[in-house]
Automatic annotation (TrEMBL), chains A, B:
Keyword Transcription (UniProt): no
This protein's name: Zn-dependent hydrolase
Binding residues for Zn(2+) 2: D90, E125, H378
Species per Swiss-Prot/TrEMBL record: Muricoccus nepalensis
Requisite cofactors: Zn(2+)
C-alpha cells in the first residue's frame, strides 16, 4: 500500500512553492515559480530512480522501466501549474500521488510488466495564455505547436519565450508516442461527491465546451460632456453580454455552465467612457448538442446587443471540445479498485477540463476523482483531507498496476 | 495681440512630452513624463521673466509683478496632466495660452496694475489616484491634504511618494492665498459649440457631480464545475450595476450623465467565476437636485441587485459637488472680450469638472471654452484648429488685462 504520510508531506512541500498568504498557491505556468516547482519535482523523481524527459512543450515524463521493454508505457499524472489564486490540490494531487505510486513500487521492489511514466503537463489551467490544456493539447495534436508558441500573456510574453525563459523547452517533439493508457487522479472541484458521501468518483468522461475571446469596441470619450445620445460605451455592451451568458446558462438548468471570467476595460479611467472591452466567454454542458446550440445562439444574440448599442463586436471561437467519453476498460479498472478497497464510489462526468480529455483522443484513458471541501476549487481556500488524498492515490496505484501487469 | 504661431508651436512642443503613437498624449500626473512636462514649462516661465513657486501639492505658480504690489494677483491657468489615452489640448491649452498671455505682455512691455500668476494645477484628471481636481481641491480646502497624500494608485504608490518622487513637493502650503480672481481657458470637450458654429463658450458654471468607488464580492470558483444554483458571480453583479447606471442616466434625458469608466475583475482568469469586482461610478447633471436624487436612488437600487444575487456590495461616496456658478463680474469680462473681438459666443455650462470649479469656492472665477472636433475629448484623436486656440487665448488675454487693470 501507498504511504499516506509521505504523500501528504510531499503535497505540503509542493504547496510551499508559490504559497499565498490566504493558504493557496500562485504557480502560474512557465513562470519562475513554476520552474521552482518543476525542479523540486524533478529532484524527487531522480531520488525515486526515474529517468526524466522533457518535450518541446515543457511536458515532463519520468520513466520507470518495466520487465518487457517492448511494451508501451502506462502513463499517469496531472499538472503542477495553478490559477492566479488557486488551491494546493488542483493538479498537484495527481502528480504527487503519481510520485507516491512510483516510490511505493520502489520501496516494495515491484517490477511491472509494462514501463510506467509519470507526467507533468504544461499549462493545464489556461489562465496565463488563455488556452487551457495547452501542453496535453499540443501533445495530442489538438493544437498546433507553432500557433501555441505564438500565444501571448497579458504582458505580451509569448509561450515560446516563457518556455525558454525557464529552460523547459525540451528536445523531444511534443507528439503522441506509443502508450498503453493514461490515468489521472484529480480533485472533483465540484460538490457532488461530498454531498453524497462518496470517496471516489469513477469519471466516465468530460463535458463539451466552447470558448471565445470577445472584443467590444465603442469610442472613448469624456464622461462629463458626452450626452446619452452620442455615447458608444463598450463596457455597457460587455455588461449586457455578461448578463446574456448568465441567461443562456440558466436556460439549461443545473447542468449548464456559462462564465465570463476575464474582462479588461480600456482606457480604464473613471471619467472616460470605455472605448474597448476585451473578455473571455465559455460555455460547458455534458451534452454536445447543447454546446452546438449555444455556439449558434450566443454569437447571434451577442451581435444583436452590440448592434443595438452601435458597438462593434469581434468574437473569436478559441476551441470547441465535444463531450469526451473515457475508455471503458480503463474506467472499469478504476471501478474495480474502488470496489476492492471498499470505498463508496459513483460514476461522474467531469465538469472541469483535464489533460486526460485530450490524451483520451490518442490513448485509452480514465480519471479518478476525490471530494474537495464545499466543492470549492480555483480558490485559495480549496481543501481536502489527508485520507481523501490517500484513498485516491491507492485507487490510482491499483488501477495502474493492474493495467501494467495485464 | 497674442502671437498665434508661437502659441501653437508651444502647444505642439508640450504635446511631444508623453506623445502616443495615435497622436495623443499620456502624461499621467506625478509620473516621470509629468515631471518632464513641468520642467519644460518651468523653463519657458523663466525665459518669460516669471518667478516660480511650487506648493505642497505640486501646484506651480509663475508670477509676473504688477505696478501695485499690495494688490492680490489675478490668477489664470489650467493643468498639464492628461488621461492615459488623452488628447494634446485638454488642460495644456489653458496653461500654454496663459504662458502666451505672459509672453505677449513681456513683448509689449505692458505693466499691469495687479500682479499676474499663471498656474499649473496638479492632477486635474483624477485617473491615476481616482480623485479629479486634486491639486486645486486641496488648495481650495475641499480635500484634506493628509488624506489626499495617502491616496494610492493602482500600483500602490501614494500621492506623497509620487510628489516626492518627481521632486515637486514644494515648501509653500497648498492653501488659498489672497487672490483677485481666476480665469481658465479650456476646450469644451463636448459637441455644443461646434454644432452651433460658436467660437467661444462663456462658461457660467459647472454641473453637479457625485462619484463612488464600488466593490462587489462573491466567491471565486471553478467555471466548469460550479452549478448555476451555487454561483456567486461578482462580475454578473457588476454588469447589472453598469446597466443600472446607464438606465438612471437615460431616465434624465440628454442632460444626464452616468458612467462606469474603471472596472477591475479578480482573479481575472477565463475559467474562474470572478469573486471580486472593483469599479468606479459617477453621475453628473446641471441640476444639483437631480444629483441629490441620484445619490439616494442609485445606492438603494445597486444594493437590491447585489442582494438578489447573494453578493456583497461596498459603496463609498468619494465626493459630491454641487452645481457651481461662476462669478458674474468675471463671466461678464469674458462675454465683453468675445463681443469686442466679434467672435460668435454663447453661454454654456461645463460638463467636465475643472480646477476653476473648486477655485471658485475661494476666488471669483470664470472660464472660456473653445470648440473641439466632434466634441471628442479623453481620446487621443482630440483635435482643435490653430485659430480656435488663438481666439480663446486672445479672449483670455483681454479678460485678464481688464481685470488686472480695473
Ligand atoms: N482542472 C481544471 O481546473 N482545469 C482547468 C481547465 C478548465 O476546466 O477550465
Ligand atoms: N476637464 C477634464 O477633463 N477634467 C477631468 C475631470 C472630469 O471632469 O472628470
Amino acid at each position: 500500500r501507498i504511504d499516506p504520510a509521505r504523500l501528504w508531506s510531499s503535497l505540503m512541500a509542493m504547496a510551499e512553492v508559490g504559497a499565498t498568504p490566504k493558504g493557496g498557491v500562485k504557480r502560474l505556468t512557465l513562470t519562475e515559480v513554476d520552474r521552482e516547482g518543476r525542479q523540486r519535482f524533478a529532484g524527487w523523481c531522480e531520488a525515486a530512480g526515474l529517468t526524466l524527459r522533457v518535450d518541446s512543450m515543457g511536458n515532463m515524463f519520468a520513466r520507470r522501466p518495466g520487465r518487457d521493454p517492448s511494451r508501451p508505457p502506462v502513463l499517469f499524472g496531472s499538472h503542477l501549474d495553478s490559477q492566479p489564486t488557486g488551491g494546493k490540490f488542483d493538479g498537484a494531487l495527481g502528480v504527487i500521488a503519481g510520485l507516491e505510486v512510483m516510490r511505493t513500487l520502489q520501496d516494495l521492489n515491484i517490477e511491472t510488466e509494462a514501463p510506467l511514466e509519470l507526467v507533468n503537463w504544461t499549462d493545464e489551467e489556461g489562465s496565463r495564455f488563455g488556452h487551457s490544456l495547452m501542453g496535453s493539447g499540443v501533445w495530442a495534436g489538438v493544437y498546433g505547436q507553432d500557433a501555441t508558441y505564438a500565444l501571448r500573456d497579458g504582458e505580451g510574453v509569448s509561450v515560446i519565450e516563457a518556455l525558454e525563459g525557464i529552460g523547459y523547452r525540451g528536445e523531444e517533439p511534443a507528439a503522441p508516442f506509443p502508450a498503453d493508457s493514461y490515468f489521472e487522479l484529480h480533485i472533483e472541484q465540484g460538490p457532488i461527491l461530498e454531498r453524497e458521501g462518496m470517496r471516489i468518483g469513477i469519471v466516465t468522461g468530460g463535458q463539451a465546451q466552447v470558448w471565445y475571446d470577445a472584443v467590444v469596441t465603442g469610442q472613448d470619450s469624456h464622461a462629463g460632456t458626452t450626452p446619452p445620445s452620442t455615447r458608444r460605451d463598450a463596457l455597457l455592451g460587455a455588461a449586457r453580454v455578461v448578463s446574456l451568458v448568465d441567461r443562456l446558462m440558466r436556460a439549461r438548468g443545473e447542468d449548464g455552465r456559462g462564465t465570463v471570467g476575464r474582462l479588461q476595460v480600456l482606457p480604464n479611467s473613471c471619467n472616460v467612457i470605455p472605448g474597448e472591452v476585451r473578455f473571455s466567454v465559455e460555455f460547458r454542458h455534458p451534452s454536445g448538442e447543447e454546446i452546438e446550440a449555444l455556439a449558434a445562439e450566443f454569437p447571434r444574440e451577442a451581435r444583436t446587443i452590440a448592434d443595438e448599442l452601435g458597438l462593434r463586436l469581434e468574437l473569436r471561437e478559441l476551441f470547441r471540445i465535444p463531450a469526451q467519453p473515457f475508455d471503458p476498460a480503463c474506467v472499469a479498472l478504476v471501478r474495480d479498485a474502488a470496489a476492492r478497497l471498499g470505498l463508496p464510489a459513483r460514476e461522474i462526468i467531469s465538469g472541469a477540463g483535464h489533460d486526460a480529455i485530450y490524451v483520451a483522443r490518442r490513448v485509452p484513458a480514465a480519471m479518478i476523482f476525490t471530494p474537495c471541501k464545499d466543492g470549492l476549487s480555483h480558490n485559495e481556500a480549496e481543501s481536502i483531507l489527508p485520507e481523501e488524498a490517500a484513498d485516491g492515490c491507492q485507487v490510482l496505484f491499483e488501477a495502474v498496476l493492474a493495467r501494467a501487469n495485464r
